[in-house]
UniProtKB/TrEMBL annotation:
InterPro entries in the cross-refs: SelO
Superkingdom of this protein's organism: Bacteria
Transferase in keyword set: yes
Stored PANTHER family: PROTEIN ADENYLYLTRANSFERASE SELO, MITOCHONDRIAL
Protein name per its UniProtKB record: Uncharacterized protein
UniProt family annotation: Belongs to the SELO family.
Cofactors that this protein relies on: Mg(2+)
GO MF, any single term: AMPylase activity
Coiled-coil blocks: none
Amino acid sequence: MVLLLALAVVVVIQVQLPAPLSAPIILRNYLAQSAIEQAEQGDFNEIERLMTVLKSPFDEHPELEHYAQKPPEWSKKLAVSCSS
């Protein structure tokens, strides 16, 4: 009986929840690297733009649409390190 009830709950949850969504804009390594390099030169505009779009990645940002594009080929060479 408990197993049947648990199964019913799972089915109800699956029916009521929308399909998983992927945000059209995510923080990619090359975007972060570019913003970091500009900030190191004293220009924080790219960081501010990224923060704006990442605060609401599901919203439309026509002026920042380029952030949703596929990564450029050169970005495949970037390596991420967590060491400090």
